[in-house]
Design brief:
The protein is of the alpha/beta class. 34% of the residues lie in helices and 16% in strands. It has an eight-stranded parallel barrel with strand order 1-2-4-5-6-7-8-14, surrounded by five helices. It has a five-stranded antiparallel beta sheet with strand order 10-9-13-12-11. Helix 1 packs antiparallel against helix 14 and helix 12 runs parallel beside helix 13. The protein starts with a helix and ends with a helix.
Length: 481
Amino acid sequence: MKKTFYISCIALISSLTTFSVFNPLKAVASNEKKLNVYYTSWAVYGNDYQTQHVRDLPWDRLSTINHSFWRIKPNEDLTEFPIVSADEWADLGRNMCFDQYEEMTALYPNVDVLLAIGGWSDTKWFAEMASTETGRKSFIDSCIETMIKYPFLSGIDIDWEYPGTSRNYEGEGFIGSSADKDNFTALMKEMREAFDTADMTEKIITYCAPAGTGRLKSGEVCIDFAAVEPFVDRVNLMTYDMSGSWSKNAFHHSPLYPSKAVEFGASASEVVEYLISLGVTPSKINIGSPLYSQGFRVDAENGEAALGQKISGTAHGNLANGQFRWFDLNRMESAEGWEALYDEEAASAYLFNNDPESIFYQHFYTYESPRSLQAKLDYINEMGLGGLIVWETAGDPMDLDYPMLTQMARELGIFKDERTEFIEAAIITDIDEPSISDENADHQENYPFSSFLILIISLSLLLIIIVLLIIAKSRNSKTNF
């Protein structure tokens, strides 16, 4: 009886000690919601504001990192479709992205790293690959081989933009047809089956889908959401770029709800409700939050008058026309000549410049603010959705300790901090105008005090039990003698 008691105590204390010693960095409070961020390999080259490496990411606030991008590189006769890195030096160079992923996932085992394949520029060959069973198998086999070679990879994110859509004007490989609908389903089904057969049942399969119910209902984009549902873990809705330099009116590019400044069917809530009506599980759906703008010039006296009006010209940007990263937009909010406005109906933020002396005069930028982000986070929690996808991490200022990603993680229950208000600390009042192109902080871990306390108590109890065992053994020895 005593022996059983001692063994039980030791097992309990051992488990407590193991938790304290080997999981000190675990900051995830709940696994119910997911913060899925896209990290781009070209972030290592820097931009006008910051150079970002894998180690620089706020790992304690993330659920999933989608590494972007790898691409399909077929053989000459288009019978095999293996995947390769789009930038071998950035990904596979010594002490570069993949080396850092291996290092950081050892410290943060609860963070998944998925390999994102495709993207707008490298979506070539998906339709060709998916059109035959042989092509699909060669692609899936290559994914499996890559995950075996790099064990830190938790799965694959398919970013085919988009099934059913032809972009052959961009060159060979950008083809699409209505046949893509069934081929995409077959690809997802066979990928899941192949992973399971390879004893990779825990590997995650996700895919990106465009937002806008008009495009989906019309068949312009061919995805059978209900048929794909059983084989995938997450559906990443790209609820951004719903307007841009191609638009005719000054509409929001990532609105939550419909309004006069939202193109018909092009809001996050509309596409979410449409997918749920098709049978997609709400907890598998992630909606998108952009850390960049879309912008235009609008002939209007003020921002309210500009909303929804006809576009009169292109806007400046340092990523592309109309596109600034979030850290620049955040500085513009409080700068002279700028109106920072909010469309209550759409739950969407925008900026307008009313200074005739500014090079930005009558420029309109639609973007994500802390307030519009909060509306999305509340919607996710109310609807029981899976979480957020974010394009992309380099838009959030590192020197301010990632205010937007922190807000996301806190409201999704992934991370706890002391902040309860909107991120006022992120507002910068003394600014220079952002650099323009017409062409298109070290993070220190904080060990929780509770974990340290558990460790001390555990070691003390363990010492007491060892003493009791020694005493018991001594008494048994005297009795036997």
